[in-house]
Design goal:
It is a single chain. This protein is α+β, with helices and mostly antiparallel strands and about 500 residues long. It folds into two domains: about 10-250 and about 375-500, FAD/NAD(P)-binding domain, CATH 3.50.50.60; about 260-365, no CATH class. The protein is about 30% helix and about 20% strand. Strands 1, 2, 7, 8, 9, 10 and 21 form a seven-stranded mixed beta sheet that branches. A four-stranded antiparallel beta sheet has the order 13-14-12-15. Strands 3-4 form a two-stranded antiparallel sheet.
């Protein structure tokens, strides 16, 4: 892909990043001058759209300006600031995208539905961050590594293992995330749920705004470029753009999980909590075998693993083992998952206390704010990552991120896991982030264009972070050049990301 105006690249303004040492010193202290978005007034609801997509929902063709003006409430209207980049979703990808866009000179807003940032890492307690290194070689750097080091400076992460899996405290994650967003110059609006978008024309027009819902009512946020980091490709769906789910035929999805944390655990006796080696089966086989044997005598809830991780506090364990086969984009399925898994967690904790000495004094500290979701929608993009791209890496001229996590597919409705190690770090092209049918939308994180097997490796947090930095940098660059996202020279973007230490 070539830039529409090659000469413009020579004049592109790039924000010079401060040194990592200075940044960590600054961010380790409380951040002042927080750039919180001005309170937006409310706006009107979209009407139902025709058609259907793989999740059984309507694709959504966007909302007309006429609908906006005719249905606005007393608190209604448009956010008084028009942004250059709007990032939808404040998870690992969205967090990095917002920071990158702002650092590269774009007026940026980050929209998040919860009262804190971090997505699955914090709202669902999913840990650790995987993977920053492969074969003891760094494959992900840039802003994601800077973020991990900030968490470590604040006492909430350990970056020392050469495997690259980074354990973290979710509360420190929340704090570090908002500090870095504000320090970048980006704006933030929390407690806001994305419920629609507006597009020009009936065809492949530009997105002109996104619809959010919050305690103030319904609002529209306008921007020149948008980044879908919702994890579930929500903006893609609301814009009526194509996507797939599962294998494209059966639409089977990986199961959802309600993570939980236990106190009162004899962690000195509990093996494999640090996950020192990436790519190896981290399952606690001793506990798994015992639970399977118990299941022959009495009911045992559906479980996977179990996988148990450190929380940086002696006597505590973060546990990943519950599972529910459902659809994370369907509200009824989500409701059933939340209720079923909460019951299952209490049953599993009881079993652990009764049958395993290291858990005899264990108690439930908390569960995730919501279930953890492994797989939902993936965009139809300009390039589909394949299993071959993962197992036999290609050199893409528009490489914007790398991955190294195993191909990791958890089986719906069973306890099984298909885990296939990758030999080395692989490359992910910019084209996989560009949805077909829009000039100003980029997807980052879980929803990128990838075959299911490739997606099963790409979906992890560190890789999503790297994709987020790429998306934010790309959106800022497109704004500077005034070009559609698919016209951006991927090789030029690759060069900028290399200079920023993001592609290594």
């Amino acid at each position: 892909m070539s830039a529409e105006n090659p000469a413009a690249s020579e004049n592109t303004k790039q924000t010079t990043a401060c040194s990592r040492r200075d940044a960590l010193k600054f961010l380790g202290a409380a951040t002042a001058g927080l750039a919180v978005a001005a309170a937006p007034p409310a706006m009107a609801a979209a009407g139902p759209a025709k058609g259907a997509n793989p999740d059984g929902g309507a694709p959504g063709r966007g909302i007309s300006r006429e609908t906006l003006s005719s249905r606005g409430s007393a608190q209604g209207g448009i956010l008084p600031v028009k942004y250059e980049v709007a990032v939808c979703g404040g998870g690992p990808a969205g967090l990095m995208a917002a920071i990158a866009a702002a650092r590269n000179g774009a007026k940026t807003i980050l929209i998040e539905r919860y009262g804190f940032l971090g997505g699955m890492a914090t709202q669902s307690l999913v840990s650790p961050l995987s993977v920053f290194n492969k074969n003891r070689k760094r494959i992900i750097g840039g802003i994601p590594l800077e973020f991990a080091e900030l968490m470590e400076t604040l006492g909430g992460a350990d970056t020392t293992y050469p495997s690259g899996n980074i354990h973290f405290d979710p509360e420190i994650y929340k704090l570090a995330a908002q500090r870095m967003v504000f320090a970048s110059g980006g704006s933030l609006i929390l407690h806001s749920y994305i419920s629609g978008c507006l597009r020009e024309g009936d065809g492949n027009g530009r997105i002109t705004g996104i619809v959010i819902e919050n305690k103030s009512g319904r609002q529209k946020i306008e921007a020149r470029y948008f980044i879908d980091c919702t994890g579930d490709a929500d903006v893609i769906k609301f814009a009526g753009l194509p996507y797939v789910m599962g294998d494209g035929e059966s639409h089977e999805l990986q199961p959802m999980t309600l993570w939980f944390r236990l106190g009162g655990v004899d962690t000195d006796r509990l093996e494999n909590m640090e996950m020192r080696e990436s790519g190896k089966r981290h399952v606690n086989s001793r506990i798994r075998d015992a639970l399977l044997k118990l299941g022959n005598e009495a009911p045992v809830p559906q479980f996977g693993g179990p996988w148990m991780f450190t929380t940086f506090r002696k006597g505590e364990a973060s546990v990943n083992m519950s599972r529910y086969a459902g659809n994370g984009t369907d509200v009824l399925s989500l409701t059933q998952a939340e209720c079923t898994l909460r019951e299952d967690v209490f049953k599993l904790v009881k079993l652990l206390r009764e049958h395993f000495p290291e858990f005899k004094n264990a108690y439930l500290i908390d569960t995730g704010t919501q279930v953890g979701i492994r797989e939902t929608r993936r965009i139809t993009g300009l390039y589909e990552m394949t299993l071959d791209d993962i197992m036999a890496p290609k050199d893409f001229p528009d490489t914007v991120a790398k991955g190294g996590h195993p191909v990791d597919i958890h089986k719906a409705g069973s306890r099984e896991q298909d885990l296939r190690a990758v030999k080395t770090g692989y490359n992910i092209p910019y084209r996989s982030m560009i949805p077909v049918g829009s000039d100003n939308l980029i997807a980052a994180g879980r929803p990128i264009c990838a075959a299911r097997e490739a997606f099963a490796s790409i979906r992890v947090q560190a890789t999503c972070m790297a994709l987020g930095q790429a998306a934010g940098t790309a959106a800022a660059l497109c704004h500077q050049k005034d070009i559609p996202v698919h016209k951006l020279d991927g090789a030029e973007l690759n060069g900028i990301l290399r200079k920023q230490g993001a592609v290594v």
